[in-house]
Amino acid sequence: MNYLAHFHLAWPEPALVAGALEGDYAKGALPGCCRPELEAGVRLHRFIDAHTDSHPLLADCRRQFPLALRRYAGILMDLSFDYYLSVHWQQFESSLPRHVFCAQTYEHLERFNHHFSPGAQRMHQRLRDYDILGAYIDWRAVPGSAARIGQRLRRHNPLGDVDAALAPLRPLLEQTFLAYYPVLQQAVAEKRQSLGENDKGCGQKPAQA
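Above: the chain's sequence. Below: its structure in token form.
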């Protein structure tokens, strides 16, 4: 999962939202790799990543990628899932409009900025300066982000122009997201209980009466 989904799954607890960002930068064993205020959020971030990496639905989807991109399929799926979460926002989040959620997420991150590692501080600033969470309503954010990530992978950027390769996969990516995200939400709800988090929402849409 990418930033928007991680924050959504950590919502609404500010410390969990902040830890969701630090989870990309905190390395090593817990406790001790980050500030105690962020530890539960980092644990949740790692749980989400492990669940996503190991789930059969996503493994099946990765196998449909062209061989040249298959090793990067996880990255591309994470990016595309933020797009599909944006597009289907009301299906998964009925309490807040997407733009309000994004604005409040930036506020939560600001509250914990002084606890972040340098890398998380830089990413927090970039998220807010460019409204990266809001940008994922546009599909072009997916290949654009992929190209920037690819610049860090090797001298030849393997993700520099993936839009054409992703085009035939987009129906599958959307189908996989819609099938998997509710499963992940339920797993996260159970994990949050073990973290001592009393909020039962976990970004889930309330059950209809």
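The chain has a mean pLDDT of 89.
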